[in-house]
Amino acid sequence: MSVNKRDLNDRSLQLLKTLVERYISEGQPVGSRILSKDSVLKLSPATIRNVMADLEDLGLIHSPHTSAGRIPTVSGYRLFVDSLLTVKPLDSKEINRLYQGLSETEDTSHMIEAASRLMADLTRMAGVVTLPKRELVSLRHIEFLPLSHNRVLVIFVTNEQEVHNKVIHTDKVFSVDELQQSANYLNSLYCGQSLVAVRTAILKELQDDQERTNLAMLDAIKMAQLTFDTNEKTDDFVLTGETNLMGFSELADRNHLKNLFEAFSQKQDVIHLLDQSMKAEGVQIFIGQESGYQAFDQCSLVTSSYSVNDEVVGVLGVIGPTRMAYEKIIPYVDVTAKLLGAALNPKTSTP
Amino acid sequence: MSVNKRDLNDRSLQLLKTLVERYISEGQPVGSRILSKDSVLKLSPATIRNVMADLEDLGLIHSPHTSAGRIPTVSGYRLFVDSLLTVKPLDSKEINRLYQGLSETEDTSHMIEAASRLMADLTRMAGVVTLPKRELVSLRHIEFLPLSHNRVLVIFVTNEQEVHNKVIHTDKVFSVDELQQSANYLNSLYCGQSLVAVRTAILKELQDDQERTNLAMLDAIKMAQLTFDTNEKTDDFVLTGETNLMGFSELADRNHLKNLFEAFSQKQDVIHLLDQSMKAEGVQIFIGQESGYQAFDQCSLVTSSYSVNDEVVGVLGVIGPTRMAYEKIIPYVDVTAKLLGAALNPKTSTP
DNA sequence: ATTGGCACTCCTATAAGTCGAGTGCTAATT
DNA sequence: AATTAGCACTCGACTTATAGGAGTGCCAAT
């Protein structure tokens, strides 16, 4: 299905590389004459035409029509980014801008937003950042408020000041005092622990001999379980700079644009795509239809997971047209992921 | 600047009405021949041409080029919606759909979202709803958590289960106990009152002889003031169905679309526009450049404020191309506003 | 006051023709 | 055996020409 580097000789690879680079920078199909001048290889247009015919047979490039040059196919881009790309490191000014931009934020959600916006601004495409997984966050405070029927409003604060809330349905109706007691119990027991740790502790508690724990404690544990049980995935992300995508001619088609933006507002496809990158560390790239989603047909997605304390807690990335300057986008995403991970680390960040 | 109904005779008005209706339904410039057949007036094309020339002189219609028909100008649309429009009442099926859609929601924010989405779906344009003003909401519970330095995280619950939070900067550093005490005091005193009522009560309290209140109480009052002091305007809205706007040929221009969507994501222009409608009751319409914002050039905005207990608490509306079916959109917006107001009223809604 | 008639304008669509870029193939060259 | 020059060919982009038609404005007739 996909073509390996070893299936080709150096000359063909060099030619493909030059062709893709040229196409990315100029946006026009690349012909043999141009390649003959552009490439470090000193070959006549005729020779290059032969090589290009081979590359076309392998499905790496194709011609929009007879008398146009060639443009890379998805496979061509894939081989290019996997094996031929020479990544350009960011200059310190840009790193600094990212660093500054992330430092100036006051809390996690602002930082996520800033990361997304910085990437969008720097790359002039769309930036996306998932909210950090719960593993990262530690419980600061929990509180229960009774609602009508046997529903309870749970408010819990994580990290420094992130407030979450959730409605749970309990077996019986609790009084304000009972709820207060439960909250006190949980606060004293689990404060400062990560949500994951809390969850496992609670499960263990439930499995243990239940008679040992008194009834009030059991109620508290049960409510905590309802609150934290869902194995909630990363279920939301911050997307900025979508409008940048409207500038690209390859996405100019109205239907294309509509599908893309519908995918953005429906969120689920984007989430699923980002979830895939969650599994791997480092930069990942989805080119064109590789994503499997119609809406992202002419788009590439460059992602990187970001980690806190060596644990992957989220994903961020850049969405743009397939024809993007990968050698610049990749380091942007890479560095942003690292800086965001570092900035989120409560141990290294200054208060 | 704008043309009044009385500046024209009935025949001209009838003709303008037919022309606008025809243009709205067909999307093509309307010529004298078509009007001659379409209008209830039995006039020859030649006569109609004379009338149209008058209407053009008044700036109500204009011709894209010599051999095209006429299309309404902004003034033409304005006169049409103000004086000529025959609004079509919604059929009961649609009212029911709106009613059902709003009833099935569990809390305020879902209801706002539902209202926006319902309008977008029914009109196939973009729906927008501002969050209700604070006047509407009553305080249910308040809580303080200490942060680093002398900052305090305030969490307060309004209505049934709407959770808000805010960081305030206090004069001195408070202990957990002190904060707890303050919260208790405020909860006992102001629970169940509207935020506005709370705010005025607090201001009064502060102005009163301060020596009478003990120190702990004073701290509580001060913190409450910091929490509720800002005369916060409606500062956010829910927008849905933006992608519907990509389908309209009159907005198809890439730059137009980009400007429009940038205005959406920047929010401030939209907010300002919606704020204007807040002042008046009932349906308001901004046609094309009337809004004053470049981005809304080819768009019209049909809004209505919505009220709870006869008090305006928010605005909702529909954004679409200038060439929209006002006679249908207006009742959609009108009815949605009324239903949303009713649904938000805690006294009439069933638990 | 209204209408038929008519010359005029300007858009739209179609067709034809030119140009140039780029190709594939073949034969000559290295 | 690999490379290259040469050449006929294809095809899209652009220009120009032409016909057709919709709609107008104006004037004279009703």
Written account of the structure:
2 copies of one chain form a homodimer. By secondary structure, chain A is α+β, with helices and mostly antiparallel strands. In chain A, 46% of the residues lie in helices and 18% in strands. Chain A has 12 helices and 10 strands. Chain A has helices at 10-26, 32-38, 45-57, 74-84, 92-103, 108-123, 176-190, 195-207, 215-228, 254-266, 268-279, 326-344; strands spanning 61-62, 71-72, 126-130, 139-146, 151-158, 162-169, 237-240, 283-287, 299-308, 311-321. Chain A has a 5-stranded antiparallel beta sheet with strand order 7-3-10-9-8, sandwiched between helices. Chain A has a 3-stranded antiparallel beta sheet with strand order 4-5-6. In chain A, a hairpin with an 8-residue loop joins β1 (61-62) and β2. In chain A, α1 (10-26) crosses α4 and α8 (195-207) packs across α9 (215-228). The longest helix of chain A has 19 residues, at 326-344. Chain A is elongated. The mean pLDDT of chain A is 90. Chain A binds chain B through residues 140-141, 143, 145, 147-148, 153, 155, 157, 160-161, 163, 165, 167, 240, 242-243, 246-247, 252, 254, 257-258, 261-262, 265, 351, and chain B through 106, 140-141, 143, 145, 147-148, 153, 155, 157, 160-161, 163, 165, 167, 240, 242-243, 246-247, 252, 254, 257-258, 261-262, 265, 351. Chain A binds a DNA duplex (30 and 30 nucleotides) through α3.
